[in-house]
Amino acid sequence: MLDSRLILARDGLAARSLEGVVPAERYVETTLRQVVVPSASLRRAASADAEQMDQLLFGELFEVLDKADGWAFGQARRDGYVGYVEVTALGVPGATPTHTVRALRTYGYSGPSIKTAPVGLYSMNALVSVEAREGRFVRTAGGWFIEEHLAPIDQPAADFVAVAERFIGTPYYWGGRESLGLDCSGLVQQALYATGRSCPRDTDQQAALGEPVEKLRRGDLVFWRGHVAIMINDTDIIHANGTRMAVTIEPLAEAIARTSANGGGEPTAYRRL
């Protein structure tokens, strides 16, 4: 069965690429756009009050199927999620990204100096194209960045668990995947992106990654219904969780006991990437 979260169709309208796959009254070509703000919410409906299901980061691409009343309905290129994004967050695609933000978060400045006004606060895995250099700064469409806060796209981080650990203390934020707030699957996705690996958005999709495992070690994923955590060693996990409303580390045994006591059940799967 097709996953509606990943199917670019609604109300009898579908992407041309789905002709013969998804029934629709009309098939149209999509328009490619790029995120031009530090982050943009991808929502379930065309309203600022609608549920945030995902986020797009600066430089990521978005296939627009339809626009109305200031909202674009489309599909995120990076993880395939479908939803609504405010039109003002999108622009015409620029140069192909050459670098990604490697710092947890960093400012883009209006000039090649820390004394100039910031133009945005960008999170890890935002995508930029370096246009020029001056001293320790590089110029991009998002402003001037400290170069050591970026990394060439072809030089990913080595350890996704170490990346996840950098998010400790970050607030829990439903549908979030930025350094200012993220949810459990967003943490896994961001950590894997930083190491150059693809990753779907939601926990049930991520539960298909890798292979089943019984004896746990660092880097294994632990799944409950609607939740995921990362093993940092053979006994402890890191996860963005609603209990403490932050990214925290705790013993797996304690998390299992608490979740079971609260009616969440036992873990449903252990997976090794």
Describe the protein's architecture and organization.
- There is one protein chain.
- The protein is mainly β.
- The chain has three domains: 4-91, SH3 type barrels, CATH 2.30.30.40; 99-152, Roll (SH3 type barrels), CATH 2.30.30; 160-272, endopeptidase fold (from Nostoc punctiforme).
- Helix content is 11%, strand content 39%.
- The protein has four helices and 26 strands.
- It has helices at residues 160-165, 184-194, 203-206, 252-261, and strands at 9-10, 13-15, 26-28, 31-35, 39-43, 52-57, 61-68, 71-76, 82-86, 90-91, 99-101, 105-109, 118-123, 127-128, 132-134, 137-140, 143-146, 150-152, 177-178, 181-182, 211-212, 221-224, 227-231, 236-241, 246-251, 269-272.
- The protein has a six-stranded antiparallel sheet with strand order 21-26-22-23-24-25. A five-stranded antiparallel sheet has the order 9-8-7-4-10, with no helix packed on it. A three-stranded mixed sheet has the order 1-2-3, with no helix packed on it.
- Strand 8 (71-76) and strand 9 form a beta hairpin.
- The longest helix is centred in the last third of the chain and has 11 residues, at 184-194.
